[in-house]
Amino acid sequence: VQIAESGGGLVQPGGSLILACTASGFTSDYWAIGWFRRAPGKEREGVSCVNSGDGYVGYADFVEGRFTLTRDNAKPTVYLQMNNLKPEDTAVYFCAASPLLYRCSGYGWDPRRSPAEYNYWGQGTQVTVSS
């Protein structure tokens, strides 16, 4: 599975960005794709995920309704719309995928545990929120 990320950049506090992730090479129609981030001096953490089945979408608590994740199953591509960005959102954002659909589910998604459970990773894209 190959991951291609796009988006990211520099934005002022309160601004918006869209990150896109396309995953290719799945051998089945079942998958989970998530966005993760690593801020300077911090552990990698989950941001949001979606699966190809029931369309469950999980978010980390710190999202607080500011981010929205959508999917296009045909490619598949997922889009992370980030609004009202804060300086503490500054991080390298990574897209990752798993062939196990339940990795993004009500019982499978854990923003702290999930980074270790996704198999395929992109190279990451920098998001900087600063005035």
State the end-to-end CA separation: 37 Å
Helix content: under 10%
Order of helices and strands: EEEEEEEEEEE
Mean pLDDT: 94
Percentage beta strand: over 45%
Secondary-structure content class: mainly beta
Outline the low-pLDDT stretches: none
What would you say this structure looks like, in words?
- The protein is mainly beta.
- It has strands at residues 2-6, 9-11, 17-24, 32-38, 45-51, 57-59, 67-72, 77-82, 91-98, 120-121, 125-129.
- Strands 2, 4, 5, 6, 9, 10 and 11 form a seven-stranded mixed sheet that branches. A four-stranded antiparallel sheet has the order 1-3-8-7, with no helix packed on it.
- A hairpin with a 4-residue loop joins strand 7 (67-72) and strand 8 (77-82).
- It is globular, with a radius of gyration of 14 Å.
How would you briefly describe this protein structure?
With 131 residues, this protein is mainly beta. The chain has strands at residues 2-6, 9-11, 17-24, 32-38, 45-51, 57-59, 67-72, 77-82, 91-98, 120-121, 125-129. β5 and β6 form a beta hairpin.
How is the secondary structure organized here?
Blueprint: E1 2-6, E2 9-11, E3 17-24, E4 32-38, E5 45-51, E6 57-59, E7 67-72, E8 77-82, E9 91-98, E10 120-121, E11 125-129
Parallel strand pairs: 2-11
Antiparallel strand pairs: 1-3, 3-8, 4-5, 4-9, 5-6, 7-8, 9-10, 9-11
